[in-house]
TrEMBL record:
Organism: Mesotoga prima MesG1.Ag.4.2
Protein name as catalogued: Crossover junction endodeoxyribonuclease RuvC
Family, as annotated: Belongs to the RuvC family.
NCBIfam families: PRK00039.2-1, ruvC
Cofactor(s) the protein needs: Mg(2+)
Pfam family, one: RuvC
UniProt xrefs under PROSITE patterns: RUVC
Assembly mode: Homodimer which binds Holliday junction (HJ) DNA. The HJ becomes 2-fold symmetrical on binding to RuvC with unstacked arms; it has a different conformation from HJ DNA in complex with RuvA. In the full resolvosome a probable DNA-RuvA(4)-RuvB(12)-RuvC(2) complex forms which resolves the HJ.
Function: The RuvA-RuvB-RuvC complex processes Holliday junction (HJ) DNA during genetic recombination and DNA repair. Endonuclease that resolves HJ intermediates. Cleaves cruciform DNA by making single-stranded nicks across the HJ at symmetrical positions within the homologous arms, yielding a 5'-phosphate and a 3'-hydroxyl group; requires a central core of homology in the junction. The consensus cleavage sequence is 5'-(A/T)TT(C/G)-3'. Cleavage occurs on the 3'-side of the TT dinucleotide at the point of strand exchange.
Amino acid sequence: MPACVRVLGIDPGFGAVGYGVVEMRSSRIDLVSYGAIRTEPQEPIPDRLLKIHDRLEELLLEFRPDESAVEELFFFRNVTTAIQVSEARGVILLAMRRHEVPIFEYTPHQVKLAVTGYGRAEKGQVQRTLKTFFRMEVNPRPDDAADALAVAWCHLTSRKFPGGVRKA
């Protein structure tokens, strides 16, 4: 394993795409940056997708991750929402691929299990655990960004055990 591994975690969305950048050196995982890419509901869908793509490109150039971890989609009751999030996820995966960043995918259950030890943990429990892990003064916010940090944490802790990692 390299001396330092930088991971870009992504929580796919359409109105907000969470991102979290973390680094592992030896056995220590440090927070580098986190936030959310936001789009406006009144914007045309192609413009929203372009905004997600362009901002993700900026993040890839700024942070130069070695690997990426993307949360898999879960079941949506609203078909329109599922389609929009799937379109955004496609843009995200394309950007990662174009920058030749290896993509690893995790289910929400896997992420919660890796962070809290319980696969059905509540968002608040995940955020409080991340706050402790990253030695933060407050819980990471917004929720999308916290979810992205959790995905990145899941990947870095899972990569020690290759059988637990799934590559896209």
